[in-house]
Design goal:
single chain; 301 residues; alpha/beta; Arc Repressor Mutant, subunit A; D-Maltodextrin-Binding Protein, domain 2; 3 domains; 5-stranded mixed beta sheet; 3-stranded antiparallel beta sheet; 11 helices; 13 strands; 43% helix; 22% strand; HTH lysR-type domain-containing protein
């Protein structure tokens, strides 16, 4: 295969096909027809002399060759995008860029939702694709599949730059009409009560990790995969839940919850935003980071 006769746009199709493992979804991601994406897959197969994706029942499975090539191709695409963006000027009023962000429903609720309300006017054609963070987020960041990863500092990638967003405290919530909301919460009452626990994509949260590391046991009656789901499992019950203070105060009036201090101190959690090292000078991403930082500072004021 000669590079000067190879259509480099096929590498973008290769990257998205390997991410989606589905021709229809890959076509939607790139805003092309399904037949056009099928044609790109055919050309990729001819160029690489490999099936790239093979049908297995209703699923498409990447070949060993495609799996081995994907990280390098994704990284090169990220570098090229960064190089092109560095030479351009970002105009939020005219841009139709799509930002890909991994963020929990907690940070989406307390920070990104109000930010997007502002950006609807500031950047009317800019769009966003949100995914939940998980064990694969660091790999996706390193491969250039994410523009930003919003996460506690302890879950950040060790090799890429990051910026602090804010510090978050943890509190306990209980049903405002329940027996646990009528008196100060002490450690023994905390330990005896039923709790709602949270893990995101199979991974313990900052608070869960800290409680486990310090040998603080709780009786978990309900386990949920979402920060926003958790307070709904407290409302109208005698359960407790350890929550981020910003989210707890947002949800409390909506669900008739009482917000109480922890019965023992937990260190503040530092929420950060992280981006690939090659995108440090990306004008569009710099603009977005500034918007996030400004929104966070406004909330703290």
């Amino acid at each position: 295969m000669r590079l000067d006769s190879f259509d480099l746009n096929l590498l973008v199709a290769f990257d998205v096909l390997l991410q989606e493992r589905n021709v229809t979804r890959a076509a939607e991601r790139l805003s092309v027809t399904q037949s056009a994406m099928s044609a790109s897959l055919k050309r990729l197969r001819e160029s690489f002399q490999d099936d790239i994706l093979t049908q297995h029942g209703k699923r498409m499975i990447p070949t060993p060759f495609a799996m081995a090539m994907h990280p390098d191709i994704a990284a090169k695409i990220s570098e090229l995008r960064s190089l092109i963006a560095r030479k351009g000027r970002f105009d939020p009023q005219r841009s139709d860029r799509r930002f890909r962000i991994a963020a929990s429903d907690y940070i989406t609720t307390v920070l990104l939702t109000p930010l997007l309300q502002e950006l609807e006017t500031l950047a009317p054609s800019v769009s966003f694709e949100f995914t939940l963070p998980g064990p694969a987020s660091q790999v996706r960041l390193a491969n250039g599949e994410l523009d930003l990863l919003l996460t506690p500092r302890g879950f950040a990638h060790p090799d890429h730059p990051l910026e602090a967003i804010f510090e978050e405290q943890h509190v306990v919530v209980a049903c405002a009409n329940g027996p646990l909301a009528t008196s100060p919460l002490d450690p023994s009452t905390f330990a005896r009560a039923g709790h709602v626990g949270v893990s995101i994509s199979g991974r313990y949260t900052f608070a869960e990790e800290w409680l486990r590391a310090h040998g603080i046991e709780r009786r978990i009656e309900v386990h949920v995969p979402s920060f926003v789901q958790a307070p709904f499992m407290v409302s109208g019950t005698s359960r407790l839940c350890v929550m981020h203070e910003r989210l707890a105060r947002f949800m409390a009036p909506r669900l008739a919850l009482e917000v109480m201090p922890m019965p023992f101190p937990i260190p503040a959690m530092e929420e950060i935003m992280q981006f690939h090292a090659t995108r440090q000078e990306d004008p569009g991403l710099s603009w977005l980071r500034e918007q996030i930082a400004h929104r966070a500072a406004s909330d703290a004021a």
